Amino acid sequence: MTNKLLLLIFSCLVYSVMINAQDEVLDLHRKKFEWMIQLQLDSLESILADDMLYIHSNGWIEDREEVIENLRSGHLAYHKIDIRNQEVRYFDRIAIVVGEAEFHVSLDGSPLSIDLLYTEVYRQDGDRWFFIHRHSNRNTVSN
Predict the structure, then answer these.
(1) pLDDT (tens digit per residue) in 47-84
(2) Region 28-46 average pLDDT
(3) Which residue of 35, 68, 104, 132 pairs with 49 in a disulfide if CB–CB is 3.0 to 4.6 A?
(4) How far is residue 124's CA from residue 92's CA, in Å, rounded to a whole number?
(5) 1 by DSSP, 3-state: which?
(6) pLDDT at 3
(7) How far is the C-alpha of 89 from the C-alpha of 80, rounded, in Å?
(8) Are residues 94 and 22 in contact, defined by beta-carbon separation less than 8 angstroms?
């Protein structure tokens, strides 16, 4: 009986930690978009892993430095991001966010609205999460 009770308590604790990590990653995921829109580049830089890759729906690939520089220069500007769906899956120190959103951006001053499906990967290092990868594609399926 005692072993079953201990197993139940341990299972509840593990589940609680997993739920907290999922909430933490989804919050960071949303903040990352806010920082990109508001050009809070110091905040954004603080979560970008050194080996981060950002793959856009047109095949354009940016590394950490390019993401920051392209936002700073205005080459790419995020104006609004309407998230319709997002979920996170948590695997030890890796969290994978799968989302669907409409991105309102400007590329070299030309406005674009793009309906995207995307996958983002976050890695936990100590008590902090870092953004390590993003890949997106255009959503061509009507909902």
Answers:
(1) 999 999 999 999 999 999 999 999 999 999 999 999 99
(2) 98
(3) 132
(4) 9
(5) coil
(6) 63
(7) 25
(8) no
11-19 contact pairs (CB < 8 A, 24+): 18/90
Name the residue among 28, 45, 35, 16 with its Cα closest to residue 122.
28
3-state secondary structure 29-45: HHHHHHHHHHCCHHHHH
Nearest CA to 85 among 97, 99, 95, 74?
99
Q: Which amino acid is at 82?
A: D
Q: What is the pLDDT of residues 101-123, one digit of tens each?
A: 999 999 999 999 999 999 999 99
Tell me the C-alpha distance between 98 and 41, whole Å. 23
Tokens of 1: 């009986």
Residues 10, 1: Cα–Cα separation, whole Å: 14
Question: Domains in the chain and their CATH numbers?
Answer: 2-138 (3.10.450.50)
Pairing, β 94-107 against β 76-91: antiparallel
According to DSSP, the residues that pair with 107 across neighbouring strands are 76, 110
Q: Judging by DSSP bridges, how do beta strands 76-91 and 110-125 pair with one another?
A: unpaired
